[in-house]
Design brief:
This protein folds into 2 domains: 1-39 and 113-142, no CATH class; 41-112, Arc Repressor Mutant, subunit A. Helix content is 67%, strand content 6%. The chain has helices at 2-14, 16-35, 42-54, 59-66, 70-82, 104-141, and strands at 86-88, 100-102, 143-144, 152-153. The chain has a two-stranded antiparallel sheet with strand order 1-2. Strands 3-4 form a two-stranded antiparallel sheet. A hairpin with a 7-residue loop joins β3 (143-144) and β4 (152-153). α2 packs antiparallel against α6 and α3 packs across α5. The chain is globular.
């Protein structure tokens, strides 16, 4: 019994994953609140920005770069396609996994959300503090490849 209590206490007080997930929910709620008037969620913003920056890009590459599972990515892309923010393009291959690219409406959306995104960014930086924001940026510079057993990987992403 004591052993069970010890591990429960250690997990409750020390688990980095629990803390990161809680922090993720807090930060996501800040961005979601600011982006809600545009019909956009923070999770979708990451995807549409990547598509805008990368140009035509295949789903598998989006998932790889953002570490998204296929069902989450498919759900978000479907919403973006329905809203006309992105479009599929033919690339002369077999038609499976057509690349997607940003549309004029998608670029307009990104320009419209700019002030709200900046407000969320400012709120987040204030919440984290200068040192916390710097640490988050530094940690995010390293991409993690699960195939490398969680060792940091200085790759793209």
């Amino acid at each position: 019994m004591k052993k069970d209590k010890d591990i429960i206490d250690r997990i409750a007080h020390e688990c980095l994953l629990m803390r990161v997930r809680k922090l993720d929910r807090v930060l996501t709620s800040i961005y979601d609140a600011e982006l809600r008037p545009f019909g956009l969620k923070a999770s979708q913003t990451n995807v549409v920005v990547l598509i805008a920056k990368a140009g035509p890009i295949r789903r598998i590459e989006i998932g790889r770069r953002l570490h998204l599972d296929p069902s989450t990515l498919t759900r978000n892309l479907k919403i973006m396609l329905i809203n006309g923010w992105i479009q599929e393009i033919a690339d002369g291959e077999d038609g499976r996994g057509l690349p997607v690219q940003i549309t004029v409406q998608g670029r307009a959306l990104l320009n419209q959300i700019g002030p709200s995104w900046r407000k969320a960014q400012t709120r987040t930086e204030k919440f984290l503090g200068a040192a916390g924001a710097t640490l988050m940026r530094k940690l995010a510079e390293n991409s993690i490849d699960p195939a490398r057993e969680g060792r940091p990987n200085r790759g793209s992403g």
